[in-house]
Design goal:
Keywords: Hydrolase. InterPro entries: AB_hydrolase_fold, LYPA1-2/EST-like, PLipase/COase/thioEstase. The chain has one domain (about 5-205): Rossmann fold (3-Layer(aba) Sandwich), CATH 3.40.50. The chain is built from five helices and seven strands; from the N terminus they run ββαβαβαββαβα. It is α/β, with parallel strands linked by helices. The longest helix is centred in the middle third of the chain and has 18 residues, at about 75-90. It has a seven-stranded mixed sheet, with helices on both faces. It is globular and about 40 Å long. Helices cover about 30% and strands about 20% of the residues.
C-alpha cells in the first residue's frame, strides 16, 4: 500500500551538478515521459530526478476527494518527493538550488509537498494542479518560501482541476511568502502549452 522508491535520472550526475530539478509525472504517465519535457527547459546544467509512481498513479482518487480516501498512497507519495529532495541534498546540492516541475496529479503532489515544507527553494512550476483535499487544511502548511518563484499554469475549465482551487492555492503560497505567477488559459484542455514552457524558462529557469 505504498510506493517503492524508483528515481529515473537525466542531465548531470547529482554529485557533479549545482542545481537539481525534480519532475513529478501525472496519473497514467511515467517518469520517462516527464523527463522528456526537460529538453524544452533551460536546465542543461541541472541534475534531473523523476520519481516513478508505483502502478503509474500517486493516489487513487481525485485530488479533491477527502484526504483519508487517498491514503495511504498520498502520504507515501509525499514521502517519495521528500526522499528525492534528500537525494539531491546528499549529493551536495543546496535547498535553494532545488527546483520542481509537476503536471496534473504530479502538480497537485508537488504543490502539496511544497506547502507542507515551505522554505527557500530554487523555484517550482505546477501545470494544472492545486493543494490536495476536499477542503483545504491550512494547518498542514507551514514555513516561509522566502520569495521562491512559483509558476501555476492551468486551463479554465479543466475537467480534473477547478480553477478556484488553483487561485486558492496561489493565495496560500503568497501568504507563505512565495513569488507566485498564475496564468489561466481559456478552454485550453488538459495539457501543457508552449507558452507555459516559455514562462517556466523566463520566470523559474532563468
Amino acid at each position: 500500500m505504498s510506493h517503492i522508491l524508483d528515481i529515473k535520472t537525466a542531465g548531470k550526475p547529482p554529485d557533479q551538478a549545482e542545481k537539481a530539478l525534480i519532475m513529478i509525472h501525472g496519473r497514467g504517465g511515467s517518469a520517462q515521459d516527464i523527463l522528456s519535457l526537460s529538453q524544452h527547459l533551460n536546465v542543461e546544467e541541472y541534475a534531473i530526478l523523476a520519481p516513478q509512481a508505483t502502478n503509474g498513479s500517486w493516489y487513487p482518487l481525485s485530488f479533491i476527494a477527502p484526504v483519508e480516501q487517498n491514503e495511504p498512497w498520498l502520504s507515501s507519495a509525499i514521502e517519495m518527493i521528500g526522499k528525492t529532495v534528500k537525494m539531491a541534498l546528499e549529493a551536495g546540492i543546496k535547498t535553494d538550488n532545488i527546483y520542481f516541475f509537476g503536471f496534473s496529479q504530479g502538480a497537485c503532489l508537488t504543490l502539496e509537498f511544497l506547502a507542507r515544507n515551505a522554505q527557500k527553494f530554487g523555484g517550482a512550476v505546477a501545470i494544472i494542479g492545486g493543494v490536495i483535499g476536499d477542503k483545504i487544511n491550512r494547518e498542514n502548511y507551514k514555513g516561509d518560501f522566502a520569495q521562491t518563484p512559483i509558476f501555476l499554469g492551468t486551463s479554465n475549465p479543466d475537467f480534473h482541476v477547478p480553477v478556484e482551487r488553483v487561485y486558492a492555492t496561489a493565495n496560500i503560497l503568497r501568504e507563505m511568502n512565495a513569488d507566485v505567477t498564475e496564468k489561466v488559459y481559456a478552454n485550453f484542455g488538459h495539457s501543457i502549452n508552449e507558452e507555459e514552457m516559455e514562462l517556466a524558462n523566463t520566470l523559474i529557469f532563468k
